Amino acid sequence: MDHKIFLEKSLDIALASAEQGSGPFGCVIVKDGEIIAEGHNQVTELNDPTAHAEVQAIRAACKYLGSYQLDGCVVYSSCMPCPQCLGALYWARPEKVYYVNTAEEASAAGFDDSFIYEEMCGAGMGGKFDLERLLVDNDLRAFEAWESNPDKKLY
User: Quick check: 101 and 79 in contact, CB under 8 A?
Assistant: First the structure.
């Protein structure tokens, strides 16, 4: 399976979200080599602080599967999952999570979760499932679109 294709898709979703003024995050969930769910950040669209890309994708995937777990699924996120999304992923139990951008890169774009990581996650992140960063060309494009979008809603 070519993981970079799915990572590129998550980045395309993040870019579209950033261009419409929503948060610059995207996620796809794959089972048996097929995308079964997508999500983008909808915090400001839905007035829901939990409507992060990974959470939205998890909700859609679980509905599609008719299950509360992501057995046999792989998650591809445009960014390192925040503590909330990491918690949701722990509960959803995917086989693996791949991401592109780091928490530090998100922080530089105005999404600083470091205090939550320090409070909740400590050094044990990724212990229940594999969590691995893969590099993709032009990986900061969604954050760059976010930073330059005058219509973005800060939250």
Answer: yes
Rounded to two decimals, the pTM is 0.83
Buried b (16+ CB within 10 A) or exposed e, 13-32: bbbebbbeebbbbbbbbbbe
pLDDT tens string 15-41: 999 999 999 999 999 999 999 999 999
Residues acting as catalytic residues:
54
| Phi-psi group of 132: left, alpha or beta (phi > 0 → left; psi -120 to 50 → alpha; rest → beta) | beta
Cβ–Cβ under 8 Å, residues 15 and 141:
yes
